Amino acid sequence: MERQVKVFLACVLGTMTGLAVALSVPEIIWWVGAIIGGATSGLFYALPEIKHYAPKAAKIAWEGLQYAPNLIRALVVYRWRILLLLVALISSGLLVWSLVVFPEMKLAPGEAGEESGVAVLFALVAIFLVLYFVVCLALSVAFIANYRDEILPAEDRDYAKTFAPFFSPIGPLLIIAWLVVKGTPHIVRGSIRLTKKACGLIKEACSFTVEFSKTLFTFIHSKELVLCTVDGALAVLLSYIVCVTLLTLPLGPTLLLGGLIGGLIGILDYEIISKRVLHIVSSK
After folding, report:
1. Per-residue confidence of the chain (284 residues) as pLDDT tens digits?
2. What is the pTM of this model?
3. Which residues contact 260 (CB under 8 A, 6 or more apart)?
C-alpha cells in the first residue's frame, strides 16, 4: 500500500505542477508543462532516495573536477588577502564616488534638494572613514599580537605590510598610480588567466551537473520512478486537453481536476497495466 500511495501522490503533485507551468507559458509551448510534470512526478516519488543518495553522487562528481576544488582551496588559503583587497577597493571606490562623481550628479527637481544631497555626501564620507578605521584596527591587532597565525596567517604578513599604505587617506591615489605603472601588465595577464579559468569552471560546472545527474539516477533508478515520470507527463497532456481545451475551466478547478486525473492514471497504471498485465513491477 505504501508504494501505491507514493505513486498516487507523486502523480497528483506532478500533474498539478505541470499544468501550472502549461498555463503560465505561451500557449504555443504549453507542452513544456508535460515535461515538467513528468520530471516533477518522478522527483516527488524518489524524494527520500534523492535525499539519501544526493551527497554520495555529489562527492563522486566532485572528485573528477580540477578548477573548482583549487578555487575553493585558494579562497580558504588567501581569505585575508581577498578581504583586504575587497575593503580597499570598496573604500577607494566609495571615496572617489562621493568626492568626484556625486557632486556632478543632477538632482531631479522636486525630489531631493541640495541639503539632502550634502547630507548623503557627508554620510558616504563617514562610511568611508569607518571602513578605513575598521581595516586599520584589524591590521593593528594583527601586528600587535606578535603575528599570531590565528589572527593573520604567516603567508599573509608581508602581503598585509605591503598593502597597508593603500588603506591610508592617499590609498586611492596609490591604487591609481599602481594601476598606471605596474598594474596594467598584471591586469592583462590576469584577465587572460581569469578567462581561461572561467571557461574551465563553466566546463566543469556542466561536467559536474551531467555526472551528478547520471550517478544520482543510477542510485535512485527504479521501475516505479519511470512509471511516475511517464504517467505524470501523460496526465498533464490529457488534463490540459480536457480541462483547458474542451471544458475551458478556470485555474483552480483545472489544477484540482488535473491532479485527480494524474493520481488515477498513476494508480491504474501501477495496479493494472504494470503489475497484472506487463508484470514489470512486483506484486508484493
Report:
1. 578 888 899 999 999 999 999 999 998 899 999 999 999 999 989 888 888 889 888 888 888 787 778 777 777 766 666 666 666 666 666 666 666 655 555 444 444 445 566 666 666 666 766 666 566 556 555 554 444 444 445 555 555 556 556 655 566 666 667 767 766 776 677 778 778 878 888 888 888 888 888 888 888 877 788 888 999 999 999 999 999 888 888 888 999 999 999 999 999 888 888 777 777 766 55
2. 0.56
3. 12
Domain ranges of the chain: 2-46+222-277, 68-205
Query: 45 is written with which cell numbers?
Result: 516519488
